[in-house]
Amino acid sequence: MRLRALAKINLGLDIIGKREDGYHEVRMIMQTIQMYDVLDIRKTKRPGISLSTNLPYIPTDERNLVYKAAKLLMDEFHLKEGLNIKLAKSIPVAAGMAGGSSDAAAAFVGVNRIFNLGLSEEELMERAVKVGADVPYCIMRGTALAEGIGEKLTWIPQMPKCGVLIGKPGVSVSTRMAYESISMDGIEKHPDIDGMIQDIKRKDLRAMTAKMGNVFEPGIIKRYPVIKEIKDLMEANGALKAMMSGSGPTVFGIFDNGEKMRAAASLLRKSKLAKTVFATTIYNRNGGDTNDK
To answer: Which residues form the GHMP kinase C-terminal domain (predicted)?
Structure first.
């Protein structure tokens, strides 16, 4: 079985408080895009999980979220057979695009199917939060409001169709570092999440992009000024808005014109500001445009 694990961007990211357990309360608008890793899953007679990847620095044991997700279901259902999983990474690592979480989501979907466990999407999502806060969303996909620590999800009607230009500089930002470096008192501007949701429902792309914001961005840009350089290049060349995704350092630009997006992608490659440049579109949950959901 071959499955696509799709990346996400955060159209809006707000932190509204810190809980006693140290976790932060968030409000985020998440959107899946057509950039993906690929999981090949095979059932084996030999028990256990064998995981391999195309990147030598990615762990292939219980430190990997794919391994954790598969093991969780195999243990729960006392499965005697084993799995051989090959993970081909294309989504940048430590990039604020939920690559690892999406890989885990694909593993949940794949194990459920290959062993005919009969779990619904909702039942998979209930188990997925044990592996990571973003994993339930990566099972659901589409446009959604995420609250709590990211696990409370509310479906939003599909955002307006648009182009998405990805630019990731050659730096990595850990989610933990991003959260540890932010203070509630230091947040100067909170994005208008509720206003964005209304704009999405009205299919008003320009109004939505005007309200986009990410509270992590100012602090991460201070540390890595190249993020602002990528943002400025995209916005000077046709992006309605460019913003850092998640905890960074990936920048995405929203375009309503495909030709302008391709021209901006070419300029970004020539600039050498970004190590990864990828022009794509949003994923439509209702559109049937992937073969694995």
So the answer is: 196-265
